[in-house]
Amino acid sequence: MARFKQKNDKGTPALNMGSMSDIIFMLLFFFMVITTMRESSLFVKITPPKGSEVTKLEKKSLVSYINIGVPQDAYATKYGSEPRIQLNDQIADVSDIRQFVELEKNQRTEEDSKLLTFAIKADGKVKMGMISDVKQELRAASALKIFYNASKEVRK
Amino acid sequence: MSKKSTPGLNTSSMSDISFLLLAFFLMVSNINTDMGIARRLPPPLPPDFTPPEVRERNIFQVKINRNDRILFNKEVGDISLLKERAKEFLGNPQDLPNLPQKEMVNIPLLGTYPVSKGVISLQNDRGTSYDTYFRVQNELTAAINEMRDELSRQKFSRPYKDLDQEHKDAIDKAIPVAISEAEPKNTGGTK
Question: Chain-wide mean pLDDT for chain B?
């Protein structure tokens, strides 16, 4: 009969944590690469419409956003309950769009400003009157490339 | 020289630090999920501009009223039929006299191809919801995308999405995005 030798030390052996940090760093880099910085927080509630024919928006650096929706509950007292337009990080009016287009164009080189796309990120319940006004302003400011933001839906 | 072993560095807090960094980046960043439909607006019109005459057979009118009801082919219809009607109009496979004319255009890679002169005219009310407007745009885009795909399979025996840019451009020329948007009407009063 074999007799097993009893070990003396009962404490748990120390785990080697050296590679743990490597793994976490790898995760960190992965997330840093696939994500983009959140530019500004939204003041308006947006539930974009759904569509089956949506395509990806290319070249994020050449996109400026026009957010349209009802102000979030926290800002309801400040901005009311009617749909508003948010440009960058402030609530604006339709008449401010022309200035906004100029500003965005000036921030980029001349070649890039021709490729600048204005993404209209609007809530599904917003009335077209407002969106038409925005589009007319964009036209007047000769910002002709636009993009309707939506979420993907698989066609039944 | 006496043999000295290097003392082990305590790196257990290293993972804590990198976890903290990871959590920070997860908080401040968002994953790119921007999807949608790209469109080109027409350039601003000169003041003395007169719209060109377009024959009635070349226009497919789509109207959306303030109650989000859709009218096409001069009758109220359901959105599920819109894609088929638009395809029928733009394709005009039997060269019917009430559907749009075609113009022979020489396109590189495709040769001479009859390009439809049909234009889809989309008009909405100021009271139309963006959701409905987008659905209509989506259906019209679907019609064009399907026609492009069919042509691509027929000519290049490959689906449109697998083509390279040169072939895609040729197909895009043969089947252009012919959607014209009229100024919105305001039948629903102010707002």
Answer: 80
pTM of the predicted structure, to 2 decimals = 0.77
pLDDT for the residue numbered B191: 40
B80 at the A interface (CB within 8 A)?
no
> Is the Cα torsion angle B126, B128, B130, B133 positive or negative in sign?
negative
Q: A108 phi and psi, to 5 degrees? A: -120, 165
The confidence band for B41, taking pLDDT boundaries of 50, 70 and 90, is: confident
Residue type, A70: V
SS3 for A91? Answer: strand
Closest CA to B148 of B105, B115, B179, B120: B115
Q: Are B38 and A55 an interchain contact pair (Cβ–Cβ within 8 Å)?
A: yes
Helix/strand/coil for A119? strand
Whether the predicted pLDDT of B190 surpasses 60: no
Burial of residue B59 (CB within 10 Å: 0-12, 13-18, 19+) is: middle
| CA B60/CA B157 separation, integer angstroms | 30
Are A21 and B127 within 8 A, CB to CB? no
For the four alpha carbons of B170, B174, B177 and B180, in that order, the dihedral sign comes to positive
Q: Which residues pair with A56 in a beta bridge?
A: B35
Q: Which two three-digit tokens encode residue A3?
A: 């007799």
Which residue from B11, B64, B127 is facing A129, i.e. has the nearest CB?
A: B127
